[in-house]
Structure formats: C-alpha cells, structure tokens
Write a structure and sequence with these properties.
442 residues; three-stranded antiparallel sheet; elongated
C-alpha cells in the first residue's frame, strides 16, 4: 500500500471513529465516495477497533515474529539518524507494548524543534494494533491542555509504519522530581492538583486514561507536570467498546489498577479516580498503596487486593516518609482512602470533587468526605483563623471582665442605695415620733 493511500485511509478512519454511532455509515459513505477498496480497508480498521483491547491476542503472535525480525535486521537500532517524515531520530526515549518513542528533531529546515516520536514496533502492525495506534493519535488530537503532552503531527514512515510526533517533555518522572527537590507537602499537592486538572479535562472529552501512575507523569524544569501515554485510553462511548477480555489479555499496570479493571468490568471515570488515589498515596507516604509487582497477573493482583486491608498513608509512613505522619492523619488519610475505595460507587464522583477536597485539606477547610458535625467544622474554623480567634477570645475575656466589674459596681450601688433608704426611713420615723402634734393626749 502506498503512503498516500494509507494516509487517506487513516484520515477517514479518524473522522468516522470520532463520529456518533448513528451517523457513522453516512460519514463513511461521504468520505469513501464510492471507493469500495478504501471503504473495505477503513471498515477493517473500524472492526478491529471495535474489539477494543483484543489486539493483545494478536500481539502475542506478532511479538514472536518481531523477535525474529530483530535478530535478522538488528531491530529498530538502524533508525538512529534516519528521517521519519520531517523528523530525524536522535535517540530512544522509551518503549511500550506496541511502540517505541524516540527523541527526534526537525530536519526539514522549516524551523528548529524537538519532539517525542512514536513509531509502531516492527512485526506489530496488525489491523488491531494499527487501529489502536490511530485511536491514540486521535485521542491526543482532542486533548489540548497545559498539563498534557500534546500532539504535533503524524504520518507514515518510509517503511510504511505509521508514526506521530508529540511534545517532547524535558523533565523528570514525578517521584524522582519530588525526591531530588526534597519537595514539601504544599509542593506535592500543587503537582497533584495539576495532574487532576489534566485528567478532569480528559474526562470532559469523554476519555478515560486507564493507566495513571507516577512513571506516566513528567515534571519539567519549570515545575510543570505533563501527563503522558494515552496508549490504552478509551472513550466512554459504550458503542466503541468491544467484548470483555479474559484476564490474561487486559492491558493495565496491576499495581495501580482498580479492582474493576482487574475483573474486566466496564471502566468509568471512577477507574482514573482510583489511580489518582494511588498516585497521591505514594506522593504522601513514599510507598505504594499496593505491594504488587508490575508483572503480577490480573488474577493474582485482584486476589491480593481484595484480601488485604488498605492501610491509611499515615499508617505506612515511616520516619523517612516525604510527609510527616502528623500531617497525614485526619483529612488526607480520609481523602486517599475514599479515592481508593474498592467499590467505584463509594469513590469521589468526579476528579474535580477529589481535587477540591485535597485543596480544602491543605487550606484548613472542612472536606466533603468527612461527616458533617459541628465539632469538626468548629475545629476547622478555629484552625483557619488562629490569630483572629485568639484576638476574639481576648476581647471576649475583656468584655466579660468589664461586665463583671460593672455588675459588681451596680450591685454595690444598689446595696448602698438600700442602706441609705433604710437610714432615711429610720430618721423619718424618729422625727415623726418627736412631733408634738402627733403626741397622744391624756
């Protein structure tokens, strides 16, 4: 298939996949314009995409072929220094299940720019993987946010493999950044709230990330967070979901996955809220909420998760923890445990609600996760207004003292008035007794 034809197929696929289910057929008719061959290719990609993550089944066979290919050709190492579209490959940045990410620089002379270039691995270009790759590109095109690494462009390499270029983030992974800067609580909360803003924006676009974890968040030298890797992200549109996969072939990170992910249940925004809870847990305590290894199977991860009680961050934090235990007890413990609740219905309903409670906790305001009672709210009010409350208390004490003195003085004056009245009445009685006109006649 020549490059121009593939680019047309990819463009049609992007637009049709993004169209509402009720209008997809009409959109396909309009864009294919009677070209049955093009329509067949697009429909094959749409069918593969509708099967969701079932690409993993095909990937097993593809990986075997890829291994042989790498032995024969030296793998993708030969891409160093090569041109891919307008980009020249500089070095490898990382690799995932279906693609390799390279640092690349603009090579067409138009302007200077670096990018993170993602290319499908050799031997992985089955219809299902291509559909998923295109879906990731399409999702990134819709996510324009300062805390999400944004899409720059995409196309087809000379060897017919699709690629896309993303913003290159020159930064450190979240936990390493915090460790090297010895970040205090306020700094960690600021970074976490930026991540929440990015995830909330994705949810507003009906996109669930499904793989939020510390390694998928980079922090720039300016201290700005960037959420990465939407490789297994999905739309919340049920019509786009395929059949439920068996546990062995679900793409996820067991140590950060929610129970419903491990079971293969439908994924909602509550899944990302669980992941954010796990990320906050590790930011505050320095330890994972789950002791599972990243390579654990979904079945063993689920069994361990459901049989092990979830301890609050303050309970696992030691003397070397990033945040002292005393700062974690109370509201922060409550927030994290609510976000990590085993039952999705018992978690925060939105990322915005989670972020709001986190903000309230560090500004001394009552959080929504705590039960409403006057004692808790009064304690929070006093904590937020210590100086004002101290001044008010002094004023009240002074007022009470003044009132007490005034009452004492009034009582003394009243007593003196009564004594004076009694003396007056006594003297009047004496004078009346001495009045000759009132002396009785004998």
């Amino acid at each position: 298939m020549d490059r121009a034809r593939w680019e047309r197929i990819a463009t049609i696929f992007d637009e049709v996949a993004d169209a509402p289910s009720a209008t997809r057929t009409r959109t396909l008719d309009r864009l294919c314009a009677g070209d049955s061959a093009i329509r067949g290719e697009v429909e094959a990609l749409l069918a593969a995409d509708s099967l969701g993550e079932k690409f993993e089944n095909d990937a097993d066979n593809a990986r075997n072929q890829m291994a042989v290919d790498w032995v024969d050709t030296g793998g993708d190492a030969r891409l160093f220094g090569e041109r891919i579209g307008p980009w020249r490959v500089v070095r490898e940045l990382g690799r995932g299940g279906m693609g390799i990410v390279w640092l690349a620089e603009r090579a067409d002379g138009q302007y200077e720019q670096q990018a993170a270039l993602k290319v499908i691995k050799r031997g992985m270009d089955s219809d299902s993987v291509l559909a998923r790759f295109l879906r990731e590109r399409q999702i990134l095109a819709r996510l324009i946010h300062p805390n999400i690494a944004h899409l720059l462009d995409g196309g087809i390499a000379a060897d017919e493999r699709p690629y896309f270029a993303m913003e290159y983030v020159d930064g450190l992974p979240l936990l390493r950044y915090c460790t090297e800067r010895n970040a205090h609580l306020d700094e960690r909360i600021r970074l976490f709230l930026e991540i929440c803003n990015a995830v909330q924006m994705a949810h507003a676009q009906l996109i669930v990330h499904r793989d939020i974890k510390p390694s998928n968040v980079l922090v720039t030298t300016a201290g700005v967070t960037k959420l990465l890797d939407f490789g297994i992200a999905r739309w919340l549109d049920d019509s786009a979901d395929g059949p439920t996969l068996d546990a062995q072939h679900r793409p996820l990170t067991p140590a950060y996955a929610a129970p419903e992910q491990l079971r293969g249940d439908p994924v909602t925004t509550a899944t990302d809220i669980h992941a954010l809870g796990g990320l906050l847990y590790e930011l505050l305590s320095g330890k994972r909420a789950s002791a599972l290894a990243d390579t654990a199977s979904p079945q063993s991860a689920l069994a361990a998760l459901m049989s092990t009680p979830l301890l609050a961050p303050s309970q696992v934090a030691n003397e070397n923890a990033p945040v002292p235990r005393r700062r974690l007890r109370g509201d922060l413990d409550t927030i994290v445990l609510k976000a990590l609740h085993r039952d999705p219905q018992c978690r925060y309903t939105t990322v915005e609600a989670l972020a709001d409670d986190v903000h309230r906790s560090v500004t001394g305001q009552p959080i929504q996760a705590r039960r409403e009672h006057m004692g808790y709210r009064a304690a929070k009010f006093v904590g937020r207004h210590r100086l004002g409350m101290a001044a008010a208390t002094c004023a009240v004490i002074a007022l009470v003292a003044a009132l007490t003195a005034a009452l004492w003085q009034a009582r003394e004056k009243t007593r003196e008035a009564l004594v004076s009245q009694e003396v007056t009445q006594f003297l009047v009685g004496l004078f009346e007794a001495a009045d000759p006109t009132r002396t009785p006649q004998t």
